[in-house]
Structure prediction request, 256 residues.
Amino acid sequence: FFLKGIQLAPKGKLDIPVLFKPDTMKMYETVVVIHVMRENGENWPYEDSAELKKDLRSRVTVAENGGIQGILWMYPIHGIPEAPPQKLVPDVIRCQARQRVERRVEVLLTGVIPDANAIPATRNSAMVDTNKPVNIQEIVQVSDGFSTTMEFLYELQYRSNEIKSQLGALVGMHLIEREWDTESRIVTLIFNIVFAPNKPMRNEAALVVQCTAGGIWKFPILFIATEPEVDDVINIEAAGLNKESTVGFKLTSQTR
Prediction:
């Protein structure tokens, strides 16, 4: 849209509404341009208007008399659509403290739009290339017999830095399988998640997947660590009434 003739007082503020209503899961780009001119129509004097630097010339409009007629501000905007939550109940990964558990988590990415700059590929489903970085993998798409390759980025996001510090070193995740359904335009990702808690806890996280062509999907995951097994049972035999009894045992520190 275009707004014209808005008066702004010195040190005033101007709110510019921006509406984003995507119809496909891809990134949209636009630029908000603000052109400011003096209310009285006069120009800003500038002695060396003919020698304006290139970067400055793109941000001003110069009048015939050499003064600066208007000033431009340009704000690029990237609109990245986020899919509505598909799971109201999170996937639960439960493990006893001081144990280790592996779980497969399957997520469905709906409304994936092939990227026009995608790389040609040769098959419609594949196992993950383990030589690639942990958080960046490729997804193979098939459309009318033509195959293309797209990249997806994924990570676990936590509600706070405190939860991240608790879970970050206890959770491991990697993509093990992916598949593209050409009829439904649904991408299926299967992750292997390892949870090895060291103490009882209950924390939530979100598996976030972003397509490099645009679009974000989020899937909630609940990590629950239950009480650990008892290390040992210590029996103390009474020496008699009103007499103290003692027993000794060793504790070994797991860290320095």
